[in-house]
Write the structure tokens for this entry.
Amino acid sequence: MTDLTELTINEAARHLRMGSFSAADLVTAHIERIERLDHHVKAFLRFTPELWEKQADEADRKIKAGEGGPLTGIPMAVKDVLCVRGVETTAGSKILRGFRPPYTGTAVSRLFEAGAVMLGVTNCDEFAMGSSTENSGYFPTHNPWSLDRVPGGSSGGSAAAVAAGEAIFSLGTDTGGSIRQPAALCGVVGMKPTYGRVSRYGLIAFASSLDQIGPFTRSVDDAALVLSVMAGNDPLDATSSDRPGKEVLNNYGGDVKGMRLGVPREYYDVQGVEPGVKAAIDNAIKVLRDQGAEIVDVSLPHTDYGLAVYYIIAPAECSSNLARFDGVRYGMSEVDAPNITEAYMQTRRKGFGPEVRRRVMLGTYALSTGYYDAYYLKAQKVRTLIKRDFDEAFQKCDAVISATSPTVAFPLGAKTQDPISMYLCDVLTLGGNLAGLPGISVPCGTSEDLPVGLQVLGPQWGENLVLRVARAYEQASGVKAEVASIV
Amino acid sequence: MLARLGLEPDEEEFYSEQLSGILKHIDRLQQLDTEAIPPTAQVVQVSNPLREDVPRPGLSQEEALANAPATVNGMFRVPSIQEEA
């Protein structure tokens, strides 16, 4: 008998169509596995039986009637930053405890319409700020491959759920690497689309010029499928592109013969890269070369400034976005304080954790009178230089390849005392956000028995190229996103 | 104060030390000459999309207030803003 919790979307959909099992069976298998394992992994914050019961019934009805699509009846998990009507959504923060959105965001709505079945809400760093999920206001999530290590972050719960066989796919958000880095650390596929490809309507904003929603899956084909359902213009997000969403699939199944793949030397030799990670990437480069890709040397000369730019722009935008959490309209509240200022202060003191406070302070400082030019404006100018680096690189190559993370999953607690060491987790991914590029992380072997991820970045709107390189690598290498067998 | 975070005195010291470290890293941006470089505020070129100005359904008062910690007469309740005279 097939293990129902180790399937890809495409495999599960085939079985559902053939009638090997029902959507209800598929949900039950996942819930049983969650009940058995999630107290070790802690990927989920809460569950949504009121949704999965109705959605699985509906899926079974459609499949029986021959009306099912490729996502009908497929169990998914949703990061705690995406609003789902009536489902408690807290951005991993105590300040939003009890908040039940009155509407569902566009990306999730489109997946519901396509028949996906929601199992629950996954843990993340508070307001998606972090690289280990240890900044969650509730509890840390554990890496399914080694329970004393982090799953990465901020979408660590979503990555861990797929790696642990607790959902067939999941949704995350990526502001500086928050999909790609946990995908790498958990050995699954994770994709961040071009900025503007997927509507951000219903996403609790962290840094609005960087945030994008994307999938975690067990295959590149699955990532392409989920992305193609979510992508496309939405009048409710003014930054959403009017390009057709389905273009992400254009020729993505082709080979890489004759494609030029750039290896940026600043990424290849990035500070702190582990030898085992480098060896896995060398191996991946060789696989792609053997498939007929031309490997070219490229340079991203402003790489060393990326982290500094990111840690001005992201905090500046977050300090503004998080101003709305004042205890008046939703969430935690100290409404009985003696005056309004005290009410704001007490609400935010009790509601926000240390990383959020750090970033709000940093952002408020960077935007304040007298510092704006030196920090925020300067960062926006250097952001232009970083974008130009990529523009020039893409003159010489079709896509850029590198490690996703300089390291494999690190032990829980290893970086919590030193913010900069935690921030450096994203040094290879945040450039893609600053330049608005599509990027994917696919499993490319292991180092010290822990997963390593290969990152592919493409030019804006080049999701199809990114998917094509990732898929060609996946097929040729035979390296698959596997489900961890826990205890 | 501006960010309304309600820091305690001992926290101020803790954070100022950490933030100094981060600002020190950020200072490397001053090495770059960006005099002639335009800023990037929006990385993907989109012009202002406009929609027809037609009414469409929004949240009902009840839905809008459903998450409110405290309400009074169909409004959000907050502590007094001015001291009573």
Q: What stands out?
A: Chain A touches chain B through 72 residues (CB under 8 Å). Chain A has 16 helices and eleven strands. The radius of gyration of chain A is 21 Å. Chain A has a mean pLDDT of 97.
